[in-house]
Amino acid sequence: MASWVLSESGIRPLPHIYSRPRTGFISNSKNNHSRIRFFHSNQSNTDLKFRGSKERNWPLRVSAPLRVAYGEEEEREEISNRVNGVVEEPDFDPGAPPPFKLADIRAAIPKHCWVKDPWRSMSYVVRDVVVVFGLAAAAAYLNNWVVWPLYWAAQGTMFWALFVLGHDCGHGSFSNNPKLNSVVGHILHSSILVPYHGWRISHRTHHQNHGHVENDESWHPLPERIYKNLDNITRLLRFTVPFPMLAYPFYLWGRSPGKTGSHFDPNSDLFVPSERKDVITSTVCWTAMAALLVGLSFVMGSIQMLKLYGVPYWIFVTWLDFVTYLHHHGHEDKLPWYRGKEWSYLRGGLTTLDRDYGWINNIHHDIGTHVIHHLFPQIPHYHLIEATEAAKPVLGKYYREPKKSTPLPFHLIGSLLRSLKTDHFVNDTDEIVYYQPDPQLSSSESQAKTGNGFTSSTLNPFAQL
C-alpha cells in the first residue's frame, strides 16, 4: 500500500540495496563478456498492480528502480561504495594527469601575490639578524648549562630562518633587483656556511625537474640498480635517524649517489661555463666565513665557539634536511615519481607537500607552504598562504591538506620515521613509479657485521637523496 501511494504521488523512495539479486535475468551472449542483471524489488506482485477502473500506460514504478550491474565484481564494488543510497566517488589516482593546466592555477592567484616588496623583505632580514645576535649575546652573558640547550634549539632554528631568506634571494622572490638579491643572499648564506651561487644553481635544477627520478637534484629516489649497489653501512646510515638529517654539508661537497660534482667546484657537472665565476665568488665567500670562524675560535676559545656556533649550525642542518625531506616524502598515501614522457613540470610539482609547523611557521617564513612555491617560486613567501588558498579550488584533490600541528610540530617526526622505513628505492624502468621498501633493511646491521649483502660502493653514505 505504501509503495502504491508513493508511486501514485510521483515520489520514489530510496532504493533498497541487496548483496545479490532476488530476481533477474542473466544474458549469456558470447559476444557480451559482462553479465547483465535486471534487479527488481522483492515486493509482492500485488504491489506492482495499478488500481483503477481504466487501463493506463504508466511507466513502471517500483520501490527498487531498474538498474544494471556488470558482473559480480562490479556489483560488489558498487554496493560497497554506496552508503544510504549515495554513491561515493571512485578512488583518486595521484599519478593521473590533472584536468587543469599551470595557467589555470596562475590565473586563480591574485595579482598582488606576485608583487615583491624589497622593504618588506629586508624587514625580515633585520628581524632575524637582530634575534640571532641577541640570542648569542644572552647565551654568552648567562653562560649557564640550563640556558645552553635552549639557546642551541632557538639559534639553530634562527639559522634555518636565515637560510630561508637567502633561499628567497636565490629564487628572485626577495626583490626584483638581482644585485640586491645576490648581496643579501651571499651575506645570509655565507654566515651559515652555504655557498650561495652553488646552492642557488643546483636548487634551480631541483625546481625545474621536481618529481623526476633521475633529473631531480634534491631528495630524489634511488633507482633499484643504484640502491642495490650501496654497501650495508651506507644503506643503514641513509635510512636510520639521525644520520639522514645530518646530510646537507656532505651533499654540498659530494652530491647524491649516482651523481658527481661539488657545489664548490666551478667545473662541476652542476654548472655551465657561464656560471663558473658566480661559483668561484660564492666559494670565496664561504672560505672567508670559515676563516673568520677559525679566527674567532682562537680569540674566544674553541669550546665557546662550539657552543655559540657549532651546535646551532648542526641544529640548522637538521631543520633543513627535516623540512626539505618532508616536502617530498612521508605522505600517508604513496605519491608518484616520474620519468620519460610521463613527467611534466606540473605533474612533478603536484607531488610536493605542504606541512604545518605550528609556531615555527612564522619563524621560518612559511616555507611549509610548499606546493605553490614549487610551481611558482617567484611568489614572495609572505604571499604564499593567500596564493595557496586561492589555488585550492583549481587543484582539487591534487592538493593534500596538511595535518594541523600543535605549537611544535612533533607529529612530523612520525611521518619522517614511517617514510624512512618504507621509502627506499623505485623501479628502474617504469615511467610512473612509487617507492618500494627493502624487506632486508632491518637486518642490514647484522649483515654489515658479517660482511654479507650488496656490493661495496664508494658513494657518499651521507649524501642527500
Q: What's the SSE blueprint?
A:
Elements: H1 2-8, E1 36-38, E2 68-70, H2 71-80, E3 82-83, E4 86-87, H3 102-108, H4 118-142, H5 147-171, H6 178-191, H7 196-208, H8 224-227, H9 232-238, H10 248-254, H11 276-300, H12 302-326, E5 337-338, H13 345-349, H14 360-363, H15 371-375, H16 384-395, H17 411-422, E6 432-433, H18 444-450
Antiparallel strand pairs: 1-2, 3-4, 5-6
Helix pairs in contact: 3-16, 4-5, 5-6, 5-7, 5-12, 6-11, 9-18, 11-12
Tell me what you see in this structure:
The protein has 465 residues and is mainly α. 46% of the residues lie in helices and 3% in strands. It is built from 18 helices and six strands. The strands form three sheets. It has a two-stranded antiparallel sheet with strand order 1-2. Helix 4 runs antiparallel to helix 5, helix 5 packs across helix 12 and helix 9 packs antiparallel against helix 18. It is globular. The protein starts with a helix and ends in a 15-residue tail after the last helix.
Global Rg: 30 Å
Poorly predicted ranges (pLDDT <50, ≥5 residues)? 2-80, 82-87, 444-465
Helix content: 40-55%
| Oligomeric assembly | single chain
Structural class: mainly alpha
- Could you tell me the strand content as a percent range? under 5%
The count of DSSP E runs of length 2 or more, i.e. the number of strands, is 6
Q: What gap, in angstroms, lies between the N and C termini?
A: 70 Å
